[in-house]
Design brief:
161 residues, alpha/beta, seven-stranded mixed sheet, 4 helices, 7 strands, 35% helix
Amino acid sequence: MSRLDSVIRRLEAQRACLNRAAELVRGIDGAVIELGLGNGRTYDHLRELFSERDIYVCERQVAAHPDCIPPADRLLLGDMFETLPAARFLIGHVALAHFDAGTGDAAANLNLAAGLRPLIVALLCDGGVLATQQAMDGPDLVLMPLPEGVAEGRYHLYRRV
Ligand SMILES: C[S@@+](CC[C@H](N)C(=O)[O-])C[C@H]1O[C@@H](n2cnc3c(N)ncnc32)[C@H](O)[C@@H]1O
């Protein structure tokens, strides 16, 4: 598979999983949180999917497309290891968390995901969903089936129990 094919598949899988996550949280009250704004691609998609919900965004340093910069009162600016525990108002009130804070370094991504996992799980309400490229298995999260066409392990959808 060429690198171009690989990028296309990754982005298609990401979009399909966000669309599925939106279905999974239909009927569950709560905010949405984007963990890693980057250039704002997935934040923009979440805005389309969740026009009625509050969408919070975590980012260390904003460098997104100007159209994709969240309002100041929805931006948790700084390192997530500090901003997530400080956002006490969100604890137990998030219906969907999307974790997309990785880089090209797979080992570093797994470490980051493992370190942030407890902080992210604490945000989720009962039945809330976590969408993440990195696995975040554990007793408080049940793995949900992926949309058709998304290879096992390429993305992960979990429901908080
Ligand atoms: C892969 S990019 C996000 C891509 C984005 N979801 C998109 O679709 O455009 C990862 C982002 O996570 C941010 N990030 C990584 N670790 C972080 C941390 N510990 N705290 C806050 N932001 C972090 C980086 O600054 C980077 O902008």
